[in-house]
Structure formats: structure tokens, C-alpha cells
Amino acid sequence: MGFDRKFLSEKKPIRKRKVKKLKKCMTLFITFLIMGGIFIVFRSNAMNRHYDYESGKSINGDAEVKIYEGYSNIPASEGNLASSFSMNSKGYDNIETGHSTDNINFSEDTKEQDKDTDQGEEDTKEQNKDTDQGEEDTKGQGKNADKGNENTQETDKDDDKVTGYRALKSELENYISQLVGVYGIYFVDLETNEKFGINAREEFLAASTFKIPLNMYVYKKIRDGKINPEDTIEYTESDYEEGAGIIRYNETFGRNYTIKELQRLSIVYSDNVAVNMLLRHIGRKSVKNYMRELGGQIVDDNKNTSCPEDMALYLKKVYEIYKKKDRYANEFMINMIETNFHDRLPALLPEGVDVAHKTGNLIGVVHDVGIVFAKRPYIIVVMSKGVISDEAANNAIANISKKIYDFVKNEV
Question: What is the pLDDT of residue 80?
């Protein structure tokens, strides 16, 4: 049987069609792989994008993620307990918690941010626009940093008038230069009024140190006869706050508390629910305005921020009123002395030395500010940010406090 060339000629078109079909399939397959790769890269970039709640701009996942107290709801530990993370919704300022975790309340702006986050594509577009403004923002931050340096220089000029504490200031500057994070210190000798500051006007998240001017304002309203300390405020569902305190653990909604009780709970137990109830009664903006009246320079209606010099100013006002035998200032002092938190300023001081103080904690933020009733009483404010370990920061503040106490003791 011979070779049928007719059959061969009929097969050629079939083979060509098969080759074309195969090429088409390969092209589609390769195109699919390329599109899939692009989608995966896009998805990965989107998932690695974080949101900076203070500037309102997105930042890449490999960049440093800053945690701001102003409107995010980020808790942290009090004392040496491990930090935790939970979300809560409140309409007040950021109030640090006590034993377990610090919860920052959501403001109306935060709720708006949450709504924007739910809008997916539009939110991503806005974030990309903000990212494109990176260079301008960096320049703006540089200007703010320059202002901060100017403020520090102004404070240092004031320190030139202080001769007795230059050695102490130098020792503390050297000590904090070896610590992780940024530390701000302010000291006031309450007998001689000598004072000095280190990073004194640096802006810090105030955390629960805000409860000092809050209580000062409430006591002022009591003195003015505009608030009766025995008036009661009902505990409502809107006041609920996780974190420090005893109200949320022990009581149900509908319980009434006197204003005097709420003040004590807000200081002794750093009770967030008590603070929310007081703020609902008097208004957060009223407290902020009062802080400005007292002379506070770092005061923001939208953020819970302060600086060491301002906190020392508030404490000095309390002390001056206390020295006038004011019953409410005395009550305030007792509450601060009886606080449950003693792992910082009082930790290394001798027994019997009273310290009226208020701690503050957030993620990367550890503070303690107070009045030390030594033979020569003084104010000491220590604020920090960018710290990695709460325990290390607690120890640092305790050591700073001991160095100051020993120096003042030797000066008496």
C-alpha cells in the first residue's frame, strides 16, 4: 500500500488550525498569569498600608507606624501588665486606664474616619492623594520641630538664672540620653521657686495626667458655687469604658454617683467611667479652656496633649491653693497621695515621704507627674514617648525621681 499524498494534503490545514488554537490558548494563559500577578501586588500593597490618625494620611507598611492618642482607640497597660488592644466608642477625650489597659475614646472625628474606611475605593483614592503630599508634610514637620527647639531654647534661657540645680539638670540630661525613647522633665523647687526643664515644651500625649486639670476645673466650679459636690450623676450606657476603674466591674447602668465620689474614683483608681461621667456633666471644651486660662501652652481641643512645663504649672496651682488651707485642694492632694499606682515617682523614695501624683499610660507612652512632700517640697514631672517597655520606663522614672530626691535632700 503506497503513501497517500492526498491524505497528507488534507491534514496540513488541520495541523495549522491546531497550532493557531494552541498559540491562542498559551497567550490567554500568559495574560491571565500577568493580570493575576498585578492583582496580588496591588492587594499586598493595600494590606500593608496603615493610617496615621493624627495627620489623616496613609503610610506604607514598612514605615514606622505612629500611635496617636487624639482619636484612635488604642489601649496600653498600666504598670507592668502586658499591653492589650481593644476598640471602644466614646465621645470624650483620651483617658488612660489603670491596672489593666488604657483605652482611648473615639471622638466624632474618629467615627467619621471609620465611615470613610468603609467606603473602600474612595478612601484609597484619598489616602493616595495624601501620600503624594509626603514631601510637603515632611517640610511642615520640620518647621514644627524647629519651633519645638526654639521653645526648648527659651526654657533653657530661663534655666540660666538657676544656679543651684545646674549639676542636677546636667546629670539628668546625661541619664535620659542613654534611654530608649524621648523623655521630658520639669522640676520646681516650691520653696525657692528655682526650676529647670529638659524637653520642657515638647508635646506629649497626656494620657491620664489630663485628669489633673479636669479635677482642678471641677473643684473650681464647686468653689464658685456652680456645682454641688453632693449632686449626683447617673451612670448610663454611654459612659461605659473598658480599662481602669471599678465602676464598670461592679455596677450596672442606672446607679447614681455623687460628683465627689466620681472625682475620687478618677484619681485613686484612674476610673475611666467616672471621667466620662464628669466630662458629660461639665463639657470637655470647658476643661480645655480652663487649661488655657491657667497658662497652658500645649492645649488642643481635638487631642489630649500636654508638655512637662504645662503639667508643672497645673500642679503648682494646686499646691498654691492647698497652702491657703483650701479644703478642696486638700481633698485633691489626699486623693493623689492615695492613688493605687506607686511604681514610678514614689518607688525608690524612703517610706513616709508623701507623693501626690498621677500616672499616665498609652502604647509607647509612660508618665508620672506629682508633688513630692520632702523636707523641701518640689514638683517633678516626667513624661515619655517612643518607649518600648513599660517596665523599663517605670524604672527610668523611678531613678529620675530618686536622683532628684537625693540632690534636694543634700541641698537642705
Answer: 32
Buried b (16+ CB within 10 A) or exposed e, 380-393: bbbbbbebeebeeb
Rg of the chain on CA atoms, in Å? 30
Tell me if 74 is assigned to some domain.
Answer: no
**Closest of 68, 338, 314 to residue 207, by C-alpha:** 68
Please report the pLDDT score of residue 279 as a whole number. Answer: 96
- Please state the rounded mean pLDDT for residues 198-202: 98
Whether 343 and 360 have beta carbons less than 8 Å apart is answered as no
Which stretches of 32-164 are assigned E, i.e. beta strand? 50-52, 57-59
31 and 178 housed in the same domain? no
Higher per-residue confidence, 295 vs 121: 295
How many structural domains are present in the chain? 2
User: Contact at 8 Å (CB) between 279 and 30?
Assistant: no
In a domain, 200, yes or no: yes
User: Does residue 309 carry a pLDDT above 90?
Assistant: yes
State whether 185 and 288 are in the same domain: yes
pTM of this prediction exceeds 0.70: no
Q: Which amino acid appears at position 189 of this protein?
A: D
Q: How far apart are CA 313 and CA 195, in angstroms?
A: 11
Yes or no: say if 248 and 240 are a contact pair by the CB < 8 Å rule. yes
Closest by CA position to 279, among listed 331, 210, 329: 210
Q: Write the CATH number for 148.
A: 3.40.710.10
Collapsing DSSP to helix, strand or coil, 333 comes out as helix
H/E element, 42: helix 5-47
Q: Which domain holds residue 157?
A: 140-411
Alpha helices in 133-193 (DSSP H): 134-159, 166-176
pLDDT band at 302 (very low <50, low <70, confident <90, very high): very high
Contact 266, 246 (CB under 8 A): no
C-alpha to C-alpha distance for 71 and 105, rounded to whole angstroms: 7
Q: How far apart are CA 381 and CA 268, in angstroms?
A: 18
Report yes or no: 265 and 245 within 8 Å, Cβ to Cβ. Answer: yes
Tell me: do 39 and 165 sit in the same domain.
no
Contact present, 343 and 361 (Cβ < 8 Å): no
